[in-house]
Amino acid sequence: MDYLEGENLEVFESHKAKVVENITKSKSMGMNKITAILAIDDEDEIIQGALISWLIKEGYRVSLRKEDYNILVIEWWEYDVLFKALIFRINSDYFFWKMEP
Fold first, then answer.
1. Burial zone of 90 (CB within 10 Å; 0-12 exposed, 13-18 middle, 19+ buried)
2. What pLDDT is attached to residue 94?
3. pLDDT tens digits for 42-64?
């Protein structure tokens, strides 16, 4: 991230690498969602914001719940799943359209 420098940039890159590793593992197991407890102090909201911004820019759906711990949920869709859902939707609409008088 452009606005992170020094130690903040190192912490961000460390968290980013761990997130990428977990997403890659999850994708290889056919999953499309991970939940993580962010081990970032509340005062490091700049790093949290940078991490969430990076995930959103990469196309992930992200939510952050603040409870006793900060819980980050990251979701994604594989293109083949989206394509199949789109084809099903098109076929369903076509079927119902053909059924109308």
1. exposed
2. 46
3. 557 888 889 989 999 888 889 98
